[in-house]
Amino acid sequence: MTVVRSELVKALTVRSGPALALVAVGAAVVLAAVFVASLPITQHVSVAGALPAEVVSAALVGIDVTAVVLTVLGALVGGAEHATGTVVPTYLLTPRRTRVVVAKAVVVGAIAVVVAAVAAVLCAAVGQGALLLAGSDPVPIDGTLLRSLAGNATGPVLYAVAGLAGAVLTRSTGGGVAGALGLLLVPAVVGWFPGLSLLAPLLPAAAVHGLSGVADPAGAEYLAAAPAALLLVGWLTGMVGTAAWRAEVRDA
């Protein structure tokens, strides 16, 4: 717990860290409003004419920008000490480097959970507000909506940890951002090549979509909730484990 507390203090004092957390939420809300307002263009239907669930789903796309911003935050937490050279005393104080990397991952994950949860709720609120303004009934607050919120919030958490792991692996904030954004774009690349569709259910996006309940059962990436949760845990464990192993076997 001492290592976690130490890493939490560092994370909270990372330059631009608090600002990035605010941007992650604010930008998500703005993007949610843009997506809802653009429904007549993208879906050829007004808010009043659309199904309530479709309006809220469109608003929740705003959380994608939260994933991008938190990726940067995670990479900053993982790469800042390498950039300043302060990683050397950190490893001297805690010789078991695995503990340091895991503590960083716990801190980044916890911050990302809070930020992503707030962003998801506010994005959904944008959709619900648009429905009310259009004179439509809002989406009931039930298990389906809560699953959608929770599932969508897992994406930013996963990519924030990916940014951290990438930064530790490359000893570079830029490397962490590039690696995590590359992981974010892999599903699109896989979609371009039919022969790679078998990889779709193994990618992080499949876990996020499976947990949120938006995956098409007939689609290549479809996963039920339980396998999606296992896949998410597998990716998180694999990324943090690889970063921790790399930190242990090389010089600071």
UniProtKB/TrEMBL annotation:
Keyword terms: Membrane, Transmembrane, Transmembrane helix
TM helices/strands, residue ranges: 20-39, 59-80, 101-129, 149-169, 181-202, 222-245
Coiled coil regions in record: none
Entry protein name: ABC-2 family transporter protein
Organism: Pseudonocardia thermophila
Lineage, broadest ranks: Bacteria, Bacillati, Actinomycetota, Actinomycetes, Pseudonocardiales
